[in-house]
Specification:
With 95 residues, this protein is α+β, with helices and mostly antiparallel strands. It has one domain (20-94): Beta Polymerase, domain 2. It is 39% helix and 15% strand. It is built from four helices and three strands, in the order H-H-E-H-E-H-E. The protein has helices at residues 4-11, 28-43, 53-57, 76-83; strands at residues 49-52, 66-72, 92-94. Strand 2 (66-72), helix 4 (76-83) and strand 3 (92-94) form a beta-alpha-beta unit. The protein is extended, with a radius of gyration of 16 Å.
Length: 95
């Protein structure tokens, strides 16, 4: 039996949409390290940036890199100017 939240989530899925699964990219970690370096270059080396999702686990996935980072609110303007709508990947904003 599904919970109401699970029913809602399932209802939002498309019957016609497709998901493409691609083989693991052996260069994923190298690419992530470049992104991490850019983020930390703008916010400081003490900003925690973590790689997760399929590429972080070293398995096949949807050909996208997922990461999370923590930063202080004063740094959000720096990120917005440098990366545009980049903050969508942020998991936590520290006041």
């Amino acid at each position: 039996m599904l919970t109401p939240e699970q029913e809602k989530w399932l209802a939002h899925l498309s019957d016609i949409g497709t998901v493409k699964i691609v083989p693991f990219d052996p260069t994923a970690e190298e690419k992530f390290e470049r992104v991490k370096k850019k983020i930390q270059g703008h916010l400081g080396a003490d900003v925690a940036v973590e790689h997760y999702g399929a590429s972080g686990l070293g398995i096949s996935g949807q050909d996208e890199m997922m990461y999370t980072y923590q930063f202080r609110k004063r740094n959000s303007m720096k990120l917005s100017k440098r990366f545009g709508n980049f903050l969508a990947n942020s998991e936590a904003v520290i006041p």
